[in-house]
Amino acid sequence: MATPRPRVRVPKSAKKGDIVEIKTLISHAMETGRRKGKDGKLIPRKIINKFTATLDGELIFQADLQPAISANPYISFPLKAEKSGTIAFEWHEDGGAVYKKSAKIEVA
Amino acid sequence: MMGRILTTFAAAGLTAGLATATLAADKEMDWGKFQNGEIRSGYTYAEKETRAMEDDDFQNPAFLWVERGEELWSKVDGAAGKSCATCHNDASQTMAMVGATYPVYDEKTKKMKALQHQVNSCRTEQMKAEPWKWESDQMLSIATYINHQAKDKPMSVKIDGPAAPFFEKGKEFYETRRGQLDMACTHCHVDNAGKMIRANRLSQGQGNGFPTYRLKWSKVGSLHRRFKGGNDNIPAAAFKRGLPVETPAVRN
Description:
The structure holds 2 protein chains of 2 kinds.
Chain A: E1 6-9, E2 13-14, E3 19-26, E4 48-55, E5 58-64, E6 74-80, E7 85-93, E8 98-107
Parallel strand pairs in A: 2-8
Antiparallel strand pairs in A: 1-3, 3-6, 4-5, 4-7, 7-8
Chain B: E1 35-36, E2 39-40, H1 48-55, H2 63-73, H3 84-88, H4 91-94, H5 98-101, E3 104-106, E4 111-113, H6 115-126, H7 137-148, H8 164-175, H9 185-189, E5 196-197, E6 200-201, E7 212-214, E8 219-221, H10 223-233
Antiparallel strand pairs in B: 1-2, 3-4, 5-6, 7-8
């Protein structure tokens, strides 16, 4: 896909102390830098190299991604629900572009 | 801080490449809607991990194309200032049977028409827009979105009436040996479905899931791309036609 499209799934509400699953997916070619194009030249590497999730500014999850990770990387992680807030997700691409998405979670 | 972070890395797209050797072709298994008598969806031949990807609408990467298709559905394009939604309104109503009934016989061209043909005829005739290429991102998106509207409806492509000769022609192609390996489609997909071909498990070649997200492609692809892939594997080249007339030619 031309422009990477992020998707996230965060439960709207959770009970305090519960462990909820956060799911994320972004459409991305994850070009490894090792493939050759039709002209015989290497296609430059372009992957999502870092993924972060922050809850109201506090880092809750971070991952470094490598070229061996498949296209359209799916990342899920468990989160212990302790406070309500907005979870901001960021996908950092080689070259500096950042794709963002955020979702609210209500903890009662 | 560590108390809050559970640093389990659940899955990062890698899972699919590392499929285990568990047998998916267990005949005793109850496949539910994925099986109808002898007919089995490719789902039933897929690895457990691959099936889990399809089962979860979120984890299923093809939904990226469904979402893109949904956007394109109501996006105005072309000189006539129309979108798909201008004429067809709510796709969940108007497109509910398309995925289960296409290809259909087209009176105008006297040929079978696939969904992609119909989309392009709408684009050029109604919308006055440029046609999309068959495997373009836009065409795959709209086709995935439209076919998804028929989800869970039984496949019911008409093969009688004017479609009958085309069905017979397709059947003949399916059963005819071709290519360097001199194999027909049936040798793998009828006689040996469920068995391994090198590291892959052969399916019955059912087309009920297309456009399908293929891990090997890292994207969705049309049924027609899959046809081509199957023929390339044998390996058979498509017949080239249309050499220009050069009469009177000179030969030795």
